Amino acid sequence: KNQVEQSPQSLIILEGKNCTLQCNYTVSPFSNLRWYKQDTGRGPVSLTIMTFSENTKSNGRYTATLDADTKQSSLHITASQLSDSASYICVVSGWAGGGNKLTFGTGTQLKVEL
Amino acid sequence: NAGVTQTPKFRILKIGQSMTLQCAQDMNHNYMYWYRQDPGMGLKLIYYSVGAGITDKGEVPNGYNVSRSTTEDFPLRLELAAPSQTSVYFCASSYLTGGAGNTEAFFGQGTRLTVV
Question: Strand, helix or coil at A82?
C-alpha cells in the first residue's frame, strides 16, 4: 500500500531559528515528490517539486532534499518567520496505469513564535 | 487569474439531505481531483477525472458521485449526507501529458461541510 509518513507531527520554534521536516514514503512506482504549504483555512500551495534524479531543490528559505534509494525527503526552513506557521505536506506522485496518483502525508504543523 | 474556484465555502447540511459542491478551473487542465481532509489527517482522494467524460474512484468514494461533462467543471455530489461526511473538501486540477507528469496540482480554497 502506498504510504507517506511525516515527522514530527507538530513543531514549535522561535522566529529566526532553522528547522527540518521529514518525509518517508513507500509509493511505487515513483514519479515525483512535492512539498506543499497549507495555511489555515486555505488550499495547499506547492513549494518544491523533485523528480527521481534530483537530490536537492531550493525555493528561497526552503530547501528540499530527496534520497530516492532510501525513499526519504526533508524540508529545511532557514531563518524562520512568523508567516512560516502552517502545515507542511509531503505529497508523492506515482504513475499507475493511465493515472498519476497523489499520496498525501498527514503533514507537519509548524508554529513559529516570537 | 481565477485558478480553481470552489463554491460554497461553508455549508451545514442535515442528515439525509443532498448537495453539490461546485468546482471550476480556468487553466485548461485535463486532470481534476476531489479530496477530503478530516481534522489532523492528510488529504484523501475521493474521485478524480483524467478528462471530460472520464471519472474514476479514489480511496474513499462511498457516498459521493461526480461528473465531468466539460473540461472546466467537476462537481461533487452528496446524495444522502451523513455525519461521517463532515470534513473540508478540496478540489484540485493539474495538467498531465503522457508519461510521469511533473506539473503541480493547484488547489481550490476548500469547502467546509458540516452534517448535523
Answer: helix
Count the neighbouring beta carbons within 10 Å of the beta carbon of residue A109.
17
CA distance B113 to chain A (A): 13
**A39-56 confidence digits (pLDDT tens):** 988 889 989 888 888 899
The answer to whether A43 contacts B107, with C-beta atoms less than 8 Å apart, is yes
Q: Do B90 and A107 touch (CB under 8 A)?
A: no
Alpha-carbon gap: A81 to the closest alpha carbon of chain B (Å): 23
Q: Inform me whether the pLDDT recorded for B37 exceeds 80.
A: yes
Pairing type for strands B111-115 and B10-13 reads parallel
Beta strands A56-59; A108-113: pairing state:
unpaired
